[in-house]
Design brief:
Layout lengths: L6 H29 L6 H14 L8 E3 L8 H12 L4 H23 L4 H15 L6 H6 L9 H14 L5 H15 L3 H22 L8 H26 L4 E2 L12 H15 L10 H31 L6 H20 L13 H20 L3 H23 L9 H9 L4 E4 L1 H10 L5 E7 L5 E3 L4 E2 L12 E4 L7 H8 L4 E5 L2 E5 L14
Helix pairs in contact: 1-4, 1-15, 2-3, 2-17, 3-4, 4-5, 4-7, 4-14, 5-14, 5-15, 7-8, 8-10, 9-10, 9-13, 11-13, 12-13, 12-14, 12-15, 13-14, 16-17
């Protein structure tokens, strides 16, 4: 029986498929353990509760006030799938983080490989995966494997690049590009910077250069249509954003980004550099102990590879102005540079945990490194010692991943408080944001908590931030206790000024739990943004 696929090609494809499946299983298990070293906080808890609500008959999240980024079309469907199997529990956040990071590593490897085959294709893929393979413990793990926060936005961007790479110049590609980008923008507007602008700009550069060489409109039609498809995705996503609240769904809070005054930019330099290093596991400022310092030192190799790839790809792009360079590499380098520049100019950076704002840079930079440097590495005259060095480095990264996966698991942030409240039959109360939704998830949904903050008059009010505002409606819900934590955003005095003297006061692990015999929701003012 004849086959249209050569035996060697079929065997190679089977090996890639088998290797990918095996890698996915191993990476998922390792990253699940790594994510477990980070406690579940209210950000991840709130998103998990949203997904649970969607799964149980509230797909538009009626009554919810989201943050400035909803993740409605990206991480929330993922969390729904996890909860459909695992139920509502804190571990859902860890499973989602591990799934996302596993996807990022594999997608970056395939984007780096492109259409290359043989040794070059393998080295490209392994180089990209290796850069991301072992997230540094402590701060970088918090940034990359905590609650959904921009890092996973690179998943649809990488899928888009695979589509451009594998589908070729077919008529339906721009249509799919528009749909994928619109879907991603609806979940996270950062897609504008790492997806829409890079693709539109790279295609326009190629079209302009083609016209300058007198190719005529027909010769650059595909690039023009592709660029237009990226731009059209923006109003499509905006229309979807307006449709959801119009249908009675969630509302979105205002964002915190904006161009910083020039006087503030010097203060951003050091933290931008540290944030970039932290993404790639090479930030020495946040580590202690010989092993963690060694982690950071080894990860400098990944930083060097990505920076080298950015320089090479940017030089090719500027030299050829879009013609003669490679579209995928052009998109990647514009995305990486644009994301870091936006972070520097549009945020007042106070600590490196803000590095999640440039989370896509890790996987996009890794894909760029593999795609740009993998081929030259294989073909280099010095490959007789470069390849063993590459293999040794990859083995070292794999060992670091093993060490990271064996670290102690962290319990959810407020699981003991949730257990104490449950044992005292306290089932509906008020708390600061970092104890609010976290307690609800840690109690497996048995306790309803409303996040509160002091208004300008010093009285407690519901907080408009990742909250189910239906729980603050005194006509349908009630609350009879307040949790006050040391150094928190609400005080005992503010609780007393709002609700009067409590019937009982408990002390637990430094927290103060004040209990009344009435519905406290009736005494609170309007929600505070």
């Amino acid at each position: 029986m004849n086959s249209s696929i050569p035996r060697g090609g079929a065997r190679g494809r089977a090996l890639w498929i088998g290797g990918t499946v095996a890698a996915a299983v191993v990476l998922m298990l390792a990253y699940l353990r790594t994510a477990g070293t980070v406690p579940v906080l209210s950000d991840g808890a709130g998103l998990s509760l949203q997904a649970w609500d969607m799964l149980h008959g509230n797909p538009l999240l009626h009554g919810w006030q989201a943050t400035d980024v909803t993740f409605y079309t990206t991480e929330l469907p993922q969390l729904m799938l996890v909860e459909a199997v695992a139920g509502l529990r804190p571990e859902v956040v860890h499973i989602g983080a591990a799934m996302t990071y596993t996807l990022l590593v594999l997608l970056a490897a395939f984007v780096a490989r492109g259409r290359a085959s043989g040794a070059e294709g393998l080295v490209r893929a392994l180089l990209a995966a290796g850069v991301m393979l072992a997230p540094e413990p402590l701060a970088p793990t918090w940034i990359l494997m905590s609650s959904p926060d921009h890092v996973g936005t690179a998943v649809p961007v990488l899928v888009l690049l695979l589509l451009l790479d594998w589908a070729g110049r077919r008529w339906y590609v721009p249509v799919l590009v528009c749909l994928v980008l619109a879907w991603a923008i609806a979940g996270d507007p950062l897609t504008l910077i790492v997806g829409v602008v890079p693709l539109a700009a790279a295609c326009l550069l190629r079209a302009c250069q083609g016209l300058a060489r007198r190719q005529g409109p027909g010769g650059v039609r595909y690039e023009l249509v592709l660029s237009a498809a990226a731009v059209v995705a923006v109003p499509v996503a905006l229309a979807a954003d307006r449709l959801v609240p119009a249908l009675g769904g969630f509302t979105t809070s205002r964002g915190v980004s904006g161009l910083e005054p020039l006087a503030m930019l010097p203060g951003n330099v050091r933290l931008t550099v540290r944030s970039f290093l932290a993404l790639f596991g090479a930030d020495f400022s946040a580590v202690h102990g010989g092993l963690d310092v060694a982690f950071a030192a080894v990860h400098l190799a990944g930083v060097a590879l990505v920076l080298a790839a950015v320089i090479v790809a940017a030089w090719r792009l500027l030299r050829y102005l879009g013609t003669g360079s490679e579209l995928i590499a052009d998109v990647l380098v514009i995305a990486v540079v644009g994301n870091v520049a936006g972070y520097f100019f549009a945020f007042r950076i106070t600590n490196i945990y803000a590095a999640h704002e440039i989370g896509p840079v890790l996987s996009l930079g890794a894909a760029l490194a593999g795609r740009t440097l993998g081929g030259p590495l294989v073909r280099a005259r010095l490959r007789s010692w470069l390849m063993p060095a590459f293999a040794a480095g990859l083995a070292c990264y794999a060992a670091m991943l093993g060490v990271a996966a064996t670290r102690a698991q962290a319990p959810p942030q407020n699981v003991t408080l949730a257990a104490w409240l449950t044992s005292h039959d306290l089932r509906s109360g008020l708390a600061p944001y970092w104890q609010g939704t976290s307690v609800t998830l840690d109690s497996l949904g048995r306790i309803d908590m409303v996040s509160v903050v002091a208004d300008r008059h010093g009285r407690l009010a519901p907080r408009h931030w990742l909250a189910d505002m239906r729980l603050a409606d005194p006509a349908t819900h009630s609350a009879d206790f307040v949790v006050v934590v040391p150094g928190g955003v609400i005080t005992k005095g503010e609780a007393l000024a709002t609700f009067g003297r409590p019937a009982r006061v408990y002390q637990y692990a430094g927290d103060t739990i004040m209990v009344w015999r009435e519905n406290l929701l009736r005494h609170m003012g309007p929600p505070v943004s």
